[in-house]
Design goal:
Length: 364
């Protein structure tokens, strides 16, 4: 097995938006998001849809409508947020908040209360790390439900992939844990491909226990709502000389490039021999028309840089981390909202054609 180096520079240029400053930060005076904001889902919706159908529901004022009116699309972000430690000083349950941005991640509106609080049995300890895909006339969100509920023989605390749908991002149908075998072990990092492959919907996921744990797996279903049946390992992490252990998991829903080809941004997690953590972002080209769908991978694609990506909230204690649950194409660019050090949200962009061309080269 080839041992790689994490120091290998990426072959494409990635630009940090806003000159590397966060696009969203915690609000100390708002209890549910007073500590950190992180790991957002983000999608583009047509501006006409917003202005014609959602202005009243979203309570947009004239200035907010004017900002959106210049672009054809608006970015809707569902982000994870935590406040003060509670529940016996043990857990700070995550909620999902809602924010509206321009496509290049200038903030337009931020909702003052959580859209999905941790108030159901399947996510009473946290609503975490959402990914959103448009499918069959609705927005489908898959997220990690962190639960202390002991039903169905689950341990005292359990992490399950959960599913919800919406048409307006404010009102959600919460469907609970997805059905099928994928939740037979703790599982997370679920992202739905935007189109079916050979008549079946494909869900990426990452089991945390069992055979081939901590690798990117696939599951398939005849419906975005499930039931989901495991379909095997898509890929595992490479080995790196700087780290004792490395693993991978899905980022945002892959971008459809035509036919059965997809561009995937994902995360790599590592522990070095002293137990220090690093999370990076990576990129892969997938072609489900091949026996091995993984055409090429770029690892790393992005690594933490600067104090705000390397150092997070001291009570959360998650430093040196980049993590994404979203990506979308805007113009010629791939836009990647991501969290730094599990504490604040940033944005990056890369020329889409440059990235795909690099992944499609024959001389890797």
């Amino acid at each position: 097995m080839t041992i790689r180096s994490i120091q290998t520079p990426p072959p494409v240029d990635v630009e940090r938006l806003q000159d590397g400053a966060p696009v969203l930060e915690a609000q100390p005076d708002n209890d549910w998001e007073s500590r950190v904001v992180l790991n957002p889902a983000a999608v583009l919706v047509p501006t006409d849809l917003v202005l014609d159908n959602l202005t009243d529901l979203w309570a947009l004022d004239s200035d907010q409508k004017r900002v959106l009116d210049w672009a054809d699309e608006a970015c809707v972000m569902m982000y994870r947020a935590q406040g003060a430690i509670s529940l016996g000083e043990d857990v700070a349950p995550s909620s999902l908040g809602l924010a509206l941005f321009t496509p290049e991640l200038d903030l337009v509106k931020r909702w003052p209360t959580p859209v999905i609080p941790p108030d159901r049995w399947f996510h009473d300890l946290g609503v975490e790390d959402p990914r959103i895909t448009w499918a069959e006339d609705a927005w489908h969100m898959y997220y990690a439900g962190y639960s202390g509920d002991p039903r169905e023989g689950a341990p005292n605390r359990h992490i399950r992939i959960c599913h919800a749908t919406t048409l307006d991002f404010v009102n959600w149908s919460l469907n609970g844990p997805i059905s099928g075998l994928v939740n037979s072990v703790p599982n997370k990092n679920a992202a739905l491909l935007p189109v079916p492959v050979r008549g079946r919907w494909v869900l990426l996921h990452r089991p945390m226990e069992g055979p081939d744990a901590m690798a990117v797996h696939t599951a398939t279903s005849s419906s975005p709502s499930g039931p989901w049946q495991p379909a095997g390992v898509l890929f595992k992490s490479y080995a790196y000389r700087e780290f004792e252990r490395s693993w991978v998991g899905a980022g945002g829903p892959p971008i459809h490039l035509g036919d059965e080809r997809f561009l995937m941004i994902y995360h790599q997690g590592h522990f070095d021999r002293e137990g220090r953590r690093e999370y990076d972002l990576a990129a892969a080209l997938l072609d489900f028309g091949r026996a091995d769908p993984v055409v090429r991978r770029i690892e790393p694609f992005m690594r933490p840089t600067g104090e705000l990506e390397r150092s997070g909230d001291p009570d959360v204690g998650v430093d040196n981390v980049l993590f994404t649950c979203a990506n979308y194409v805007y113009g010629d660019d791939l836009i990647i909202p991501y969290a730094g050090a599990d504490s604040r949200i940033f944005g990056a962009r890369v020329r889409l054609d440059d990235l795909v061309s690099e992944l499609d080269r024959d001389d890797h």
